[in-house]
Design brief:
By secondary structure, the chain is of the alpha+beta class. It is built from six helices and nine strands, in the order αβααβββαβαβαβββ. The protein has one domain: Gcn5-related N-acetyltransferase (GNAT) (Aminopeptidase). β2 and β3 form a beta hairpin.
């Protein structure tokens, strides 16, 4: 029978790209993070505007893992949740994924609650991530700031809901910006 201390000692929150002690995990966990990101974006046709399973998608995920700040929760030998960020008006969330388990979803919510509590990130969201952002009271960012926060991106506001449409990989997506950009 496993002891309670075994569970505590096997749970780690990693801040890759922020904590030099955690940098070694970038390569060690790359295959898990890559697969989680790829699997999470299959439903919307692929990651980064590239077709799911394409070599372009593979390269984009690889590049983002190499160049992003990464917040990951690891339980035992498995990453359960990950969020990647890039420096753009503070910390912009560019990708998020879980391993699909209930625990992974809870761990992802932990990452987002910490982001809200620290007022340290922002991002474009839709679907389940948008619903969770609303649940935890993450503030929405007015579409009037889109031209500043999303330079070079063409957006079309959807009514006065804060939502907008933009084309990613040749397909229109409805998004909303949430969080705490540093303006």
């Amino acid at each position: 029978m496993e002891k309670f201390k075994d569970f505590i000692l096997n749970e780690k929150i990693l801040s890759i790209g922020l904590n030099s002690e955690h940098e070694k995990h970038r390569e060690e966990l790359r295959p898990q993070i890559h697969d989680m990101i790829r699997n999470s974006y299959v439903k919307i046709g692929g990651y980064g505007g590239h077709a799911s399973g394409s070599s372009e998608e593979f390269s984009e995920i690889h590049s983002d893992i190499s160049n992003s700040l990464i917040k990951a929760i690891k339980r035992g030998n498995n990453v359960t949740a990950v969020n990647m960020y890039k420096p753009q008006f503070g910390r912009k969330s560019i990708a998020a994924a879980t391993d699909g388990t209930h625990q992974g979803k809870q761990d992802f919510k932990l990452i987002k609650r910490e982001d809200k509590g620290m007022q340290r990130s922002w991002g474009e969201v839709s679907g389940a991530v948008e619903r969770h952002a609303a649940e935890i009271g993450m503030p929405t960012i007015p579409t009037s700031l889109a031209s500043k926060l999303l330079p070079g991106k063409s957006i079309t506001p959807v009514g006065d809901t804060g939502h907008y449409e933009r084309t990613i990989g040749g397909k229109k997506h409805t998004k909303i910006m949430v969080g705490y950009p540093k303006l």
